[in-house]
Amino acid sequence: MKKLSVLFTAMIIMAFLISCGETREANKKGDPQAKVLATVNDVPITQHDMQQRLKRTPHGEMMNPEAAQNVLQALVRDELIYQKSLELGLDKNPEYRKKLQEAEAQLRAFQRQEISALYRGHMRSKVEVKDAEAQDYFEKNSDEVYYVEPGYKLFKDYYIIGVPPIAMGVKGKELLFTYVKPCHGCFVLRVPGKEEVEMFRRGLVT
Fold first, then answer.
1. Cα radius of gyration rounded to whole Å, the chain
2. Are the beta carbons of 68 and 78 closer than 8 angstroms?
3. In the chain, N or C terminus with fewer CB closer than 10 Å?
4. Cβ atoms of 200 and 146 closer than 8 Å
């Protein structure tokens, strides 16, 4: 058992020294992977891995260089143990699989939440640009232009959405207005609307 322990420790030291040498060489060359602090059998130990481990220490990122070096050695050791465990098939353990699936589900939930927020921001930016274009189009191609606030009810069940003030055009007996289609953006529609046109003329200010 003692010989095995010494051999395993030697493996860690060798992997650590070789990987750090590779990292220093990559840094000299300006490699885009310069944030890789070490590699273990071609698996990178990154600055992000280090930061995650430091979060679990009492002093966090205020650790001195020697303590940080110890943390990096621990990460290399853990990666070696992980790789050996895979070789032994320990990743098939039911309890481990259950915990892994729970963690993966949490990751997917986080990804969906963050991407959804980015998507909504992306669509809002597209709608804002289209609203400006639509307003310019209405002013150039309508007999009359009216401005409404978001939520204005048109016809029986359509509500205008967009960035206020929202322009709407009148061309003869037709209405020109924007329609936002989810996942596609903003479109300009031109539809008959005699009653709506008269309502605009009676009650809305240009």
1. 31
2. no
3. N
4. yes
Task: Kindly give the residue spans of alpha helices, DSSP state H, lying in the chain.
Answer: 2-28, 47-54, 65-87, 94-141, 194-203
Q: Would the pTM of this model clear 0.70, i.e. be above it?
A: no
Task: Express each pLDDT in 144-185 by its tens digit.
Answer: 888 878 888 777 777 777 777 778 888 888 888 777 666 666
Sign, CA torsion 153/179/176/135: positive
Name the DSSP letter for residue 184: T
By three-state DSSP, how is residue 32 classified? coil
Residues 44 and 46: their CA atoms lie apart, in Å, by 6
121 to 23, 130, 149, 187, 192: CA distances (angstroms):
38, 14, 20, 18, 33
